[in-house]
Design brief:
It contains 16 helices and 17 strands. By secondary structure, it is α/β, with parallel strands linked by helices. The longest helix has 20 residues.
Length: about 450
């Protein structure tokens, strides 16, 4: 893309964001060698970071955030690279728990732009959207001299551009489910193989062992890489107790028996995610010096937007962006036990939205369902969503504009009644922008 006569070094934030969003229109997927070349030209050096690399279908962002929180609370300078963002692109680049400034964002954008210009003049491809952002993030983290780098994969793992580093401290794989089947494969085994692509020679791998098929793939890959495995089994999470907005439970394993973990989420699915974060930090204790009680405190203080987040009294936002996420969302609703709840829903077309809607219609006990359309080009028209709800016996109110839909839901919400907003993370991002990212914590 050519900015023409515009002064590239004085590009505004809005122009830079617009440029980034235009990238998918003129690029295609590049190989990892291309990403390595981009980082080489940016003078990004792996040895400057202690890397924790996280992949998975659901929960990887929560795990990354909790690890970053523990590191931050214990004065360990850390960078956190996540995707997608919910409201602003700067959310993808966090230093010590806070997103980078607009000035840092623009400085990184321009630095990468100059490198990309030279690459294109030499006949090399333009980076993809995610690749460009990854380059920006690495430039920011290196400039800020972060010690620990927590990296969330974008899509898959094996071919994801975050998978360019050869020797992280630890790799983590969260729960695996059918998602992005057009890219990752149409079976759990195929998707697990893509996620397991982040496993490195001799680097320990910690993972959610809740799916037997995925477990087998991960353990086989780890064995081939001589990487010691640390599976976390669902039956090691015991005696959960819901205390309004918190869950207390015990984690049991051979060398760390009956550890009580308190998590600030009204979501059972976060028990596994926070256990993975806890275990990761316990494994890294010889490296970090962070003790057990400090780890538990950091996890207890973790906050994460859009994951069963209570943004107002009995108003919840949850980015249940695939079928597995919808199952987990409904489990969370059942734990809260609301009376006659309202559902506000929208989703994107590259997920199994029909199955997601079927689950919501058949398992939910909604007084009212409201559907809307996400502004993203992949957003499903609200009329189509309503038609599928109707097919499964649930009538839905159609309000195309998401702001008006949210206002309608609030207006109809009675005192003490719960409103649950779920679907695509892009939808949750729109709602957070509408509400100003308010959190009732």
């Amino acid at each position: 893309m050519d900015l023409g006569k515009a002064d590239k070094m004085k590009m505004t934030y809005e122009q830079a964001v617009s440029y980034l969003y235009e990238i998918p229109k003129f690029t295609k997927k590049n190989g990892l060698e291309h990403t390595k070349e981009l980082l080489r030209r940016l003078d990004i050096r792996e040895e400057n970071f202690k890397i924790i690399h996280v992949a998975g279908s659901n929960g990887k962002g929560s795990v990354c955030r909790a690890i970053s929180e523990v590191l931050t609370e214990n004065q360990k300078c850390n960078g956190l690279f996540i995707s997608p963002h919910l409201v602003r692109m700067e959310e993808r680049f966090c230093i010590n728990g806070k997103m980078c400034s607009v000035e840092e964002f623009l400085e990184a954008f321009h630095c990468v732009y100059e490198v990309v210009e030279r690459m294109q003049k030499e006949g090399l491809a333009h980076p993809t959207f995610f690749e460009y952002l990854f380059g920006m993030g690495m430039w920011i983290f290196q400039k800020k001299r972060v010690e620990y780098l927590v990296l969330e994969t974008g899509l898959g793992g094996r071919l994801d551009c975050t998978n360019v580093f050869t020797h992280p401290l630890l790799t983590i794989i969260t729960s695996i489910s059918l998602e992005h089947t057009e890219y990752l494969g149409d079976t759990i085994e195929k998707i697990a193989a893509e996620k397991a692509g982040i496993i490195k020679q001799g680097v320990p791998v910690l993972y959610d062992a809740g799916n037997e098929k995925a477990d087998q793939v991960i353990s086989t890959k780890a064995s081939a890489c001589q990487a010691k495995i640390y599976p976390v089994h669902r039956n090691s999470l015991k005696f959960p107790k819901f205390n309004g907005k918190y869950i207390d439970f015990y984690f049991q394993c051979d060398y760390d028996v009956d550890t009580k973990i308190s998590i600030p989420f009204a979501a059972p699915y976060q028990m596994m995610n926070m256990t993975l974060a806890y275990q990761a930090m316990r494994m890294l204790e010889p490296e970090t010096g962070i003790k057990k009680e400090e780890i538990l405190k950091g996890i207890r203080n973790t906050r994460w937007q859009g994951r069963m987040q209570e943004v107002g009294e009995n108003i919840y936002f949850d980015g249940a962006h695939n079928v597995a996420g919808i199952h987990a969302f409904l489990d969370s609703v059942a734990l809260i036990r609301p009376q006659n709840p309202i559902l506000l829903f929208s989703m994107v077309s590259d997920k199994d939205y029909e199955k997601a809607i079927q689950l919501l219609a058949e398992r939910g006990q909604w007084e009212q369902v409201i559907v809307t359309t996400i502004s993203d080009k992949r957003g499903i028209p609200a009329e189509d969503i309503a038609r599928i709800f109707s097919h499964f016996g649930q009538q839905a109110v159609v309000i195309e504009d998401s702001r008006k839909a949210y206002e309608w839901a609030l207006k109809g919400k009675k005192r003490g009644q719960a409103l649950f907003c779920t679907g695509s993370l892009y939808f949750i991002g729109e709602l957070l922008e509408i509400t100003g990212g308010k959190n009732s914590d």
